[in-house]
Every structure is written in C-alpha cells, then in structure tokens.
Amino acid sequence: MIGMSFDSEIEMYNYYREYGKRKGFPVMRRSSSKGIDGMIRHVSYVCGRSGATRSKSSNPLRPQPNAKIGCNAKLGGGLEEDGKWRIRVLNIEHNHTLLTLTKSKFFRCNRSLSSYAKKKLDVNDRAGIRLSQNYQSLVIEAGGHENVTFTEKDCRNHIQKERRLRLGDEDAAALQNYFMRVQSEDNRFFFSMQVDEEGRLKNVFWAESRNKEAYKEFGDVVTFDTTYLTNKYDMPFAPFVGVNHHGHSILFGCGLISHEDVETFTWLFRTCLACMSNSTPIGIITNQDKAMKIVIAAIFPNTRHRWCLWHILKKILDKLGGYKQYRDISDMLHCAVYDSQSPAKFEEIWHRMIVEYDLGGNDWLHGLYNERHHWVPCYMKDSFWAGMSTTQRSESMNAFFDGYVNSKTVLKQFVEQYSSALKSKVQKEVEEDARCLSQQMPCVTSYEMEKQVRDVYTILKFQEFQKELTANMYCEYVNSMVCEHIVREDVKIGEFKKRIFFEVHFEKDKGEISCSCSMFQFKGILCRHAIYVMIHNDSEVLPEKYILRRWRKDVWRCHSRVKTSHELHGCTDEEKRYEKMCVRFAEVANVAARNIEDVRRDLPEPIQCEGNNAGFSGQGSCSNSMGISTNATEGVRDPEVRRRKGRPPCQRKKSTMSTKPKKNSTRSDAEDGHADNILSSQVSVVTPQGSNIATVSEAIFLSFFLIRT
Asked: Are 19 and 12 in contact (CB under 8 A)?
C-alpha cells in the first residue's frame, strides 16, 4: 500500500518481487533518478508484461512468443528525509491472467543461481560429468524442482542422479521393495510383478498415479514399443507413451518383460488395461511384431491398430539394397506412401513399381502390401490419431529416455534412472504451462481465426497452426463446384519444385471441412489447403469442432495436480539434514576462503568419532515410513539372463569394437552409472548421538564467523 516504508531500495524491490511471485506476475525495474549528490532518489517498478509487443524475429512470418501485453500495474517509491524508502505510486490492477506460485517461480526475476550452485556446476563440468547430469544433482540436493531457484535453461545443465535405492543386494527384491515403499505413500501407485514356478521374476508393470490421470486425458492414442533398450538381464523395456497438449511425449505406464511372445504380451496388456480402469484407447501404434498383432486384436478388439511407418521405411535399405536400381525403387516406394491421397492412387503407383522393377518375388514387399491397411496413410483416413504421427512417435520414444537410462544397468538402478527421466518430463511440462500462460504469440495476419486459435491453444500447437496459415500463400484455387474444391500447392523438395493437387470438401452452412491430405486426422491441426478454401469463401472463424480440447491451454487437467512418487518420498530426515548442512557449510567456506590462513591457524583439531561407520552396507532389513518390512519380499528371485532377438552378443560387441574408438574411462564410468568411486570420495558427516543438529550448525557457523572477524 502507499506509504509503506523500507530501509533500502533493494529491500523495497525484493518485497515487491516476492509479492509478484505470490500473486503470479513478473516484476522489472522501469526507471530511476538520482539527486545532486549522485544517489538514487526515485525508482519505479512495473509488471514484466507492461509495454507494447515488439517482434524481434528477422522473419515476420516466424515470430517468437512475447510477454508484453501492455499491463499498467506498477510501484513507484522514493527516498525520504528520514532515510526511509516509501511507496508513493501504486497500481495493483493487471490486464492478464495471474499465475499460481508453482508457475510464477519461472519468471526471470525469480530465478537466480547462487555462488554455491555455480561452483558445483563448474567442478562437475571439469570432472567430465555430462551437462544434463549437472543440473539434476542440484535439483536432488535441493529436494526437488520446487525448491530450486533456476531452470534447466538458466544453467544449461542436467546432471547425473546417482541416488542408490539402498534396499538390498538382489535386483528383483530391491525392485519390489521400491514399489512397495512407493505404494505405501501413494495408494494410487500401481505395480504388478509376475514370477515363474521357481520364484524368478518374469515380467513387471508399473504406473505412477500422475501417469494414470494423464491417460484419462490423452490416452485416446497410445504408442507401444519394445525395441528401445534392455537391461543386463536382456529384458526389453516396454513403455506406453502418448502426446500431451504441448505435443510432447507423455508416459502412461511401462514394463520390463522377459519374452516378446503372445503369453507375455497378453499378461502385459491385460495388466495395463486393469491399471487404466479397463479404458481402451481409440488407436495404438506398434512395430510389426506378429505376437503383438494377435494380442491387440484379442484384448483391444475395438482399437485401431497401426504400424509405425518410420520403422517400416528404415528397413528399405536392408530389404531392397541388393537391387541394382535401389535408388529408383526407394523413390517410387516413398512416392506411393507419401504422395498417394487415395487407395486407388496408391495401388496404381505400387503395381507400377512392382512391374517396372520386377519385384513380384520379394516376400517383404508382398507382406507389406497384404497388410497395407495397417501402415499406408491413405488407407487410415478414418482414424483420428490426435497428434501422433508415426515419425514423431519413434523420435519421441527415444527422446523420452535418452540421457537418463542406460541400456545395460541392473533393475533397481534402472527404475531410479526411469524416475529421473520422468521428473524431467514433468518439469518440462510445468515450465511449458507457465510459458503459455505468461507469454503470448503475436499474430502475423489479420484473419480472425489466427487470434481465435492463439487465445486458446498452447504456444507450440499455435505455432503449428500459424505455420499452416502463413503457408496458404503457396496455394492457389484451381476449380470449384458447389462443396468440392481443387487446390494446387507449390511444394519445394530440395532444389526442385512440384505442384500437387488437393481435394477440399467444404460445407459452410454445416461448418464441415476436410482435405484429401488428411492432416487434421493425423495431427489435429487444419491444413493450409482447408484454411485457404475457408478464407476464399469468406469464412475466417474456425468451427468449434476444429478447436480441439487436447491442444487448449485454458483447460484444467487432473494429471497436472497429481504429485509423482518422487515428490512424495525421498531421503530420510537425517539425509535431508545432511544436505542442508552441506549447503550452509558451503556458505561458511566461501567466507572463510577469503582469509584462509587465519582460519587454518585458529581451527581446532578434528574430532575423532569412534565406533561410527560412514558407509552404507546394503545388508540386513529396513522398513519404510509406513512400517512395512522389506523382508517380506525376500522370496522374489532375480530373472534369468536371456538372449533376445537379433545378432548374437559376440557379433554386436565385435562390431562395436571395430567401429567405435574407446571412450575415456572416467567419462564412460560416469555415463554408465558407475559412481562408486565418486560416492566413496564424498565426505560423510557424523552427528554425535543426542546432539541437536540445529544447535551444532549454529555453533559451527558462529565459530567461523568469530574467526573471520
């Protein structure tokens, strides 16, 4: 309020910044003025969304999001005669949506890197630790993303998370103990483990409560893949993945399986279905595995099953590379797949390819043709895929776990690495939500449909629509007959251009529009050809049916309010105190380092604590906070090591050794998750029994302070 006083300008700014953080708006310094003595006498602070929108992009058709929206909220203060700073001008009214505290922390004014964080990042970087692992270590040390004052973008770092489960030596038992501990703290967490007659682990499936809620929102289309990575037991990793409202991959649940056969897939899909309250997806995308096809048809009879086009086309070289005219065959095959807007056109190009290059005896092509309804785009136009193209699907699957999960790790470490990947994905979604609510993309046209989509869609999806809207400049009307329209587009392929014709059906009175390219069916975004026809027919507002809930930023989604398991459980109280002490001692060290010789001379001799062991043995039993003993899981034995499909391991190793140079051993150890040397070199703090941890820390801090002064 006007008249509030502060001891300094900095104190007034910090107060207003904290107020803005809690209310949900950014704060920035607008102006200041000095007196005759050269001291600052007046300052003004404004909402970070004040001012006019100005595009900084060199390409006006590819603008960048801008936070400026002309907000008039501000605070002005001045230095009084009594030496106090007082608020003189105040406007607390905003013309935009205010964010919650969990999102307002991402404003630039609320983000900062402490000297301790900077030093640790530097040390880890010099040690050869990957940058992605650097950031994650600071997050773990702070107790979670909600406790750090910076983002991944600020420090450009992620670091390795090397927290051990400390649940026992046996992988299977440790895995079950971990799941039981998570479930005791979150009864919505789901897991199921299948064992054989000898008590060995066969298959396991688990899903976070947040993942289950996300499935309700985005589970209409699911992708399933077992080809990404395995662990030391050669158990394929089987994640169920979808796409969220930003177009990012989102995990629904995942499993580790012993075989890729009908029996195993039946157990996995039935378990997943039970976890998701027997709600089946509209569509599911997989590879060409025959066992998968049989099981999906039996368990999901009403679900449209499609094959991943990316997986199919990447086999062309292997299957057809021996032909003399391979290049021409490959070009015609791609033409049949991508340029065919109708089944008739596909049939024409396919048969011409078979006859012209004498491919009638190729079993691989023959099998693909018989199953064309599973993978050829023009045969799948009745399917609504809600934004999951096949290429995007395969890329997002790899991107989901790259940098977090090693393919040859033990089970308990694998789940820990998986948790680290999940945390990163959740954090990125929260950051993107905050960006969408605090920034706004400028329009590049005067069409009402652009503003209509901008106001409700997330930034990334609006940019996709904006790209289609601006690209209609390459389209031209060819013919029109009542509701049927022919549109020509000039498409550039490399250095060449070609003209492609599209059929657009538009009924203005009913608000119905469709295009032969079927982009809306595949990506949930209207194509440039449909937009061109609408504008040509003086229809500048999209019908509501083409504004999908899936891409909206103004929709409340249940999964965003659900905590993940890694947020519900963490270190013990002793470990949390230890981490806080390390941060405090680092601050003391910064002070002491300025006059190190005096500190060394006055420091007392180190205290020797007998009978204490600073290491962790991993033996014996332990119980979690709910009192559930981990001894109950000792009956679960590790799975048998099996060899799966593909080349024998010896040949894979030979191929790797002959083609790749040996990596630096220090870097390899860090990347493969072997942090024993690093952990053993860390200093352990032993607290005497019965002592008060706060009193001890205060006494030590006071001692250093007295020595320094």
From this structure: no
